[in-house]
Amino acid sequence: MKHYLDDEELQRLVSVLSANEPPMVCQVALFLLSTGARLSEALNADWAHVDRVSWVWRIPATNPKSKRVRAIPLNDHAIEVLERLGTEGKSDHLFINLKIGERLTAVNKVWGAIADQGRTAASEAA
């Protein structure tokens, strides 16, 4: 069973994410693709965890799956996502529900709809 995307599938996914709503869920997905982080790590990320000089994201040891701080250097794509968010100064959290201003928590339903759009685009391209 394949657990990765080939180049064509990745390009299709990024296209779907870049053109979709709600934008915050799509930004989470693009951030995950850029960093290799776990969904729970991204959803729990705060601006205080991001060093904006060296562009390193430090994931605290309080994360249940890790016993120590993890430092993830942010590539250009991840930095672009952070700069597009518009949450800095509005919230301590990177990814928020813009309607209520609180940490984004549930993305599974939206992610399922986006995945369906990606599959539809793939079948139409074939």
Automatic annotation (TrEMBL):
Superkingdom is Bacteria
Provide the Tyr recombinase domain boundaries. Answer: 1-126
- Ribosomal protein is among the record's keywords: no
Q: Where are the transmembrane segments?
A: none
Pfam families in the record: Phage_integrase (PF00589)
Q: Which UniProt keywords apply?
A: DNA integration, DNA recombination
Q: GO biological process: any one?
A: DNA integration
Which GO MF terms does the UniProt record name? DNA binding
Q: Cite the SUPFAM superfamilies for this sequence.
A: DNA breaking-rejoining enzymes
PANTHER family reported for this sequence: PROPHAGE INTEGRASE, PROPHAGE INTEGRASE INTS-RELATED
What the record says about family reads:
Belongs to the 'phage' integrase family.
Q: What is this protein called?
A: Tyrosine-type recombinase/integrase
Name the source organism: Duganella vulcania
